[in-house]
Every structure is written in structure tokens, then in C-alpha cells.
Amino acid sequence: MDAFTRFTNQTQGRDRLFRATQYTCMLLRYLLEPKAGKEKVVMKLKKLESSVSTGRKWFRLGNVVHAIQATEQSIHATDLVPRLCLTLANLNRVIYFICDTILWVRSVGLTSGINKEKWRTRAAHHYYYSLLLSLVRDLYEISLQMKRVTRDRAKKEKSASQDPLGYSVADEETEWLQSFLLLLFRSLKQHPPLLLDTVKNLCDILNPLDQLGIYKSNPGIIGLGGLVSSIAGMITVAYPQMKLKTR
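C-alpha cells predicted for Peroxisomal biosis factor 11 alpha:
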């Protein structure tokens, strides 16, 4: 109970809960819409999804400042690739949150002279760029982790070279693809924060891909992806050691 209280006391924790609720409603609505007699339930889910989405915008109002701080921190990363990817990703997040704030101003009726579709598309573009750059960083970290696992495996094989039955990935997996997937699995298994970050970014990018018409999905896939991403985000908020660190 104490852990849950600490989690919900954080703005990010509450946002993740709201986000998980929003995408759960989207997923359930997609699953129930084709079924007869579920019209009232679908309508209630749609209203709840809309209300939660509006509530989340309040939590995101201060995220511009957090994104600027994250940009300042990423500039000091020692490794060139993460520094470049994260800095550009965070700059795009700054612009995305600015667009999101403008859309919020329009939605609450403070002004009517804002082109909603224009700013929504602009926000989707910058959100997409931010996630794409984050995924490039994830792929770079995965490649480093795979090299590390391969090097450690080679050392073990060398020390056991006198044993003709010594373990070898090449012996167990004769095909290149199988060997690659096995190495990828072991690399991510040894680095849970990297796995969580990669899964989160892959799930998140489905939404802007659909909005921009790059890869069309249905609400069920987007809802499932958003739910998985929200759970991954909740884990990193509840357990900060599971957040991928910037080197």
C-alpha cells in the first residue's frame, strides 16, 4: 500500500494510471463494438476514454519544463550516439508539448482562432520524430549489449576450449537468424531497463504512425500498444532502477 501511495503521489505515476485507463477503454471499446447489445457499454467506455484523455492534458502542462531539463542533461552524455539521439529526441518532445499545450488552450475554449487539425498533425510529427530517435538510441544500446554478450561468451568458450563439448551458439543454432534471435534474447534478458525502454517506444510509435498515415492500425492495436507502454512506464516510475540510464 505504501508503494502504491508513493506511486500515485507522483505526477508521472498518476499520468501513467490515467494513460493505462484511457488505452484500456480504447481496447475494450474496439472489442465490444461488433457485438450486439453492447452499445451502452461502448458509449460509456467512449465517454470515460474522452474524460481521462482530457484529464491527462492537465498532467502534461508542465512537461515542457521537464523536457527542457532532459535536453540539458542529455547534452552531457559521454557517448556520442546517445547524446545526439536523446538531445534531438528531447528537443522534439519540447515542441510536441508546446503543440499539446496549444491544443489544450483550444479545447478549453480560451481561444477559437487555432487550427485544431494543423496543430494536432504538427504535434504528431514531433512525437513521431522523438520516438524514432529514441528507438535509434535503443538499437545502438542493443548492439553494444549484443557485442558485450558475444565477448563474454567467447571468453567462456576460450577458457573451456579443452572441453570438446563446450557450449557454442554456432553449435546450438546452425542458422544465422536463429543465432541472431537467441543472442538478442540473451542481451535483452541481461538488461531489463533496455528491454522496457525498447518495448515502450515500439508500442508508443504505433499511434503517430497511424495519425500521420504512415502505417494505419486499428483502435484495438493502438489500445493494446498504449496499454503495454503504460505498464512499462508504470514499472519505471515505481522502480527507478528499471529506467534506462544515460551514459
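The CA atoms of residues 25 and 224 lie 10 Å apart.
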